[in-house]
Write a structure and sequence with these properties.
Helix content is 48%, strand content 0%. The protein is mainly alpha-helical. The N and C termini lie far apart (29 Å).
Length: 69
């Protein structure tokens, strides 16, 4: 996997496992907030930022502990 630098592509990658309904108010709000976080971080960083998700360790969620929603 190549590092992702486009904010929309980063957001799409992060939201994909959640299977949010496109066009809903919740999906729009999440996109707005993540876009703000990415822009704020980039403004404070000294150099351009990209994300390489292939180097991120996988996460296992204990659904029994957190609910099956």
């Amino acid at each position: 996997m190549q590092p992702i630098s486009n904010p929309d592509a980063i957001i799409d990658f992060c939201l994909a496992p959640l299977a949010l309904q496109p066009g809903t108010e919740a999906e729009a709000e999440v996109r707005k907030r993540l876009n703000h976080v990415i822009r704020t971080f980039r403004a404070k960083a000294a150099q351009p930022v990209s994300v390489d998700f292939s180097k991120m360790p996988s996460q296992v969620i204990n659904e029994a502990a957190h609910g099956y929603e």
